[in-house]
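re the bet — no i am not wrong, look at it urself. input seq straight from the record:
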Amino acid sequence: MAVSDELLIVDLDAGDADAGMALSTEAGWNQTADDWRHFIETGHAIGVRDGDGRLIASAAALPYDGPLGYIGMVLVTQSWRRRGIATRLVDRCIEALEGRNLVPVLDATAAGEAVYSRQGFLPQFRFDRWQGTGGGGELAAGGADVSAVVNLDAAAFGAARSSLMTDFLGRDGTQVLLAEGGEGFAMIRHGRRAWQAGPVVAPDQGTALDLVKQLMATASGPVFIDVPQRWQAIGQWLTDAGFTVQRSFARMALRRAEPFGDPSRLFAVAGPEFG
């Protein structure tokens, strides 16, 4: 019996948000306590504790209103890695989502892609996390219509995320820019290490680039934005603005290579943990 098989998988509750933050902080991730609370309150968050009761690993299944659900927050503390714990947790998340008749989807790093491929996940498209510094201005306070953001996001992403978008919009500091004509939007919110830009949804790359430029001109301090690799004009503008690629991801779905939604309208994702 593997060591990981002897460790019980437990459900996480609101009291585990700080322990979850410790895991994501150790990994250098950008998640906030609000992100952890969303997974715990809205999704099915699970973890593993060591003999002293310390949370040493986590994962979460986040169901969306549509054909898919998301697997995120897959974390194992350094001293417990390479023991099969993450695989067990992901398997449990798969069961939770398939039990709701949802296709499990996740965003994988290069190292994670090989592992998830063995579990039956197929790549759909790839995106890069760009990091840089905003222009230092201030975003004007916006009163974006929640239903409009939810509908635009759902059409591009492939599932309605009303709870998530409402949560994002209700957080201190979150701002949304609407495209002229109301055919798109760009969002930016606080992260632990940097502003997190995204989603960015638009009818075409030119409109999306205008929104990205506005976000970057007005955001103050470090910024992350996750852009599908197909959008080379946005990548070139980010390069010219001094941004660099921190890492790359593959969006993967269980036994499905065809992307959900309308990828031609999705110019930045919400983040690898949310899709």
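see?? The mean pLDDT is 94. told u. also The CA atoms of residues 119 and 254 lie 8 Å apart. so pay up
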